[in-house]
Prior knowledge:
Layout: H1 14-29, H2 32-52, H3 56-64, H4 66-80, H5 86-103, H6 110-138, H7 143-172, H8 176-196, H9 199-202, H10 224-253, H11 259-273, H12 276-285, H13 288-308, H14 313-342, H15 348-377, H16 379-398
Helix pairs in contact: 1-8, 2-3, 2-7, 2-8, 2-10, 3-6, 3-10, 3-15, 4-6, 4-15, 5-6, 5-8, 6-7, 6-15, 7-8, 7-11, 7-12, 7-14, 10-14, 10-15, 10-16, 11-14, 12-14, 13-14, 13-16, 14-15, 15-16
Amino acid sequence: MSVRSATPVASTTLSAVATAFAGIAVIISSYVINAMDRTLFPLILPEVARQYGFNLPEAGLMATVFTIGMAIAGVPSGYLMSRVARRTVAQTGLFIFSAATLVTVVSGGFADMLIYRALTGIGEAMQLTALLAILSAYFVRFRGAAVGALNCAFGVGAVLGPLLGAQILSVYGSWRAPMIAFGAVGFLLMLSFSLAARNSITEIVAPSVAREAVATGAPGVWNRNTVVLTLLSAIAGLSIFGFLGMYPTYLRAQLHFTTADAGRVMSIYGLGVLVSVLGGFIGDRFSTKRVLVLSFLLASLNGWLLFNGPAGFGAQAALAFAFGVIFSGAIYVNIAAGYARAVAPALTGRASGIFVTGFYAAASIAGYVIGWLAENFGWTVAGDLQLGAVCIVGALLALALRPEPKSIPWRV
């Protein structure tokens, strides 16, 4: 049975505020482990592929197959939150994610490893859908910034994952060691979540004091903006996870970076993700349409330069940082927040589920597609198509978005 409160936390004492924000900090921090795993696995993929004999397309699929699980579980997770508390959905997802990460190390071959990696996606979909609904409802005036803060947690994990993963790999000489370590951290975060995330934070629908100032979205989950945003989600997923899934392999195989240097570049990408709060504030201040059109145009240029520009460490690090800023800090954040703005508050959970499914359905084939393109036509063509050309299409589609019915004031 769902436990929901229609009003915000009643007490305004300093202690109550501190407790609330401590709980929010733990909720956001619980997403760190997801990014640690997502940036670790592509880094150790050459070792995994060598041991199991995966070819390049198979390796690419293994790096991004978790997105199939996310695509499958996104919409059901949104509907589940109409019957089960959001915190329960988030905790269950974190448990599945962590357990599947640990089980990956005992894989016997391609088929069962594929299943375990897909299961991590099911867990993450449940967790992410619930976290997006929690933060969008709690910070109703600043949905973009709230989603940006969650994405910052992903950025922190993207910084820590490759650095810690490469270090553990170097010390123990086995790709299994960092997987075991990260799976254990996931269980610790799940325990912290259960202790700190209270119903007064996680189950709120919308603060009553803010309802008059916030535009009332569409009464149905499907409308012009959610349809366009779903198409944009697919384009973003194809590009972002083409990068995350195979870019470390491109650095190591094509540009001959060492494992440590490839890990540092991916960590610098994670630093770019840390500007997500700023990207969310910009989306709260200006129309989603304007922000996404400009962001997709910049993304196309950045994607082209990654595979056609300078090949040195400094240049690739700078371009990877820009990728994090543009794709993760601006595009991802404002598409996710756009769904929340496009529907009535009661539909936020379902809208978040549609976003997760749309984004990760395309992401599920991203690694395989860019791997196939690279194997048959070379890395330059693969990057030009999957990170450059599709973003031009995204900019054109974003022009079809309707402006939000009413802007959200910045004063609180």
